[in-house]
Every structure is written in structure tokens, then in C-alpha cells.
What we know:
Blueprint: E1 8-12, H1 22-33, E2 42-46, H2 52-59, E3 64-68, H3 85-91, E4 95-98, H4 101-106, H5 111-123, E5 127-132, H6 136-140, H7 144-155, E6 165-169, H8 183-201, E7 209-213, H9 218-225, E8 232-235, H10 242-250
Parallel strand pairs: 1-2, 1-8, 2-3, 3-4, 4-5, 5-6, 6-7, 7-8
2-phosphoglycolic acid binds next to strand 8.
Amino acid sequence: MAETVRPLIAGNWKMNGTSAELPELKRIADGAEGTRSNSPYDALICVPATLVDRAVRTVAGSPLAIGGQDCHGAENGAHTGDISAAMLVDAGAASVIVGHSERRADHGETDIEVMGKALAAHAQGLTAIVCVGETRQEREDGVAMDVVDTQLAGSLPKDAAPENTVVAYEPVWAIGTGLTPSLHDIEAMHDHMREQLRERFGAAGTRIRLLYGGSVKPANAEEIFAISSVDGALIGGASLKSGDFLAICAAMPAR
Length: 255
Ligand code: PGA
């Protein structure tokens, strides 16, 4: 039986957001604020790197944390256009997404690179949100769990712990498509991943938060959050609108 962990509801703004969207972020922070005293979850929005500093100032004093969407595996150096973990920390980020399937697809990121990014994040005190998930073809071929096992084994560093790592299961075919796996399939995958984490990290592996991501909306959040091995969500499109994001937050039951 897995231990109860404090859920995390995380938004991923992807390549969306300029200063014009800061008032929307403020509405999310204010809505999260309203649940502070008895909030059953942590809330986080991962904004574009250009917005981290201003986002942090916009939500100051609220329970909403701000994160980045990627960092380089190196501490610093000749990597034009890249962002280091230290830069994100300097801007006020608390977390960073690494290995999102869009990074894996658009930039050819491999498991070993994703592990390097997670290690770089940890070295700077950032929580790494490590993403894994199968493609449609892989699910149809019946190898979804094998694919996720390989990604987990290859992307999660040895030092992964509940304090510095979150894992997000995001089937590639569910991202931005409006499609989601059946509740049974989400549960089966999360239970399987929990077992993998427990085998590798022991008791600590039962407390690493395991998020579901891919077309989470106000309409399906409640049934997804009812799955005991789902410790929260990573939300793309629906995190851009305060009403949607807060409705998803409100669907999280007390655990
Ligand atoms: P989506 O994106 O909620 O828009 O499907 C999820 C993600 O990519 O994290």
C-alpha cells in the first residue's frame, strides 16, 4: 500500500505567455490563496523562462509556486540560448520540468540527457519534474509499460527522492489532443510505475509524487484524482485559463 503523499497540481504554460498574461497568473495565485488554510495540494505553474522572474514577483505571498520548463545539464558554459538550473533559481523558480515529450521530440533529448538535467536541477536545489510516456503506436503495440520502464530507468538519477523529484506520466498521444487513457489504464500504469519506483528507491520510492498529464480538464479531473496512485496532474492547455486551472484544483479531494 503506497503512502499518502501531498498532491501537486502543476501547470505547464509551454511557449505561451508574455507580460500580458501576468494578470491571469495573478488570478490563479489568488484562487490558490483562497484555499491556503486547508489546501489539500501544492500548486505550481511552469512559465516560459523569460517570465519566471516577473511571475515570481506577481504571485509573491501566495501559495502558488513558479517553475521553469527545461534546464541544461551543464552548470554553465558555451550553450547559446540554453538556460541553466542556477539561472532558474536566480529568477526565483522552485521546480523545473525535464524530459517533456515535446523536448524529447523537438530537440531529440535522450534519457541520459534528461537524467543530466535532473541532476543539474537537484544540484541547485530545484525539484525536477521528470516526464515519461509512450506514443500511440507504442500503446497499440502493447509495449507502453516497457517504454515507460526504460524511460524511468534512464531518466531518473540515483539521487531521486521525494524531496527533489516528481514523476509525470504523460502519454504522448494524450497531450493536447483531448484524448485520455481509460481510468483503468491510468491506474494500471501508475500502479506499475509506483512499483518500479519502490523497487529502485525503496521506501522513498513510495513517496515520490506521481502525476498524470495529458488533456486533464475540469470535466475529467475529479475521476482522475479519484485514482489513489495519482498524486496530482501536469496540465498544459487548461493551465492557461485561471478558471479551468482552479476548477481542476477544486476537484482534488482531501487525502
Ligand atoms: P495538455 O498538456 O494538458 O494540453 O494535454 C499536458 C502537458 O503537455 O503537460
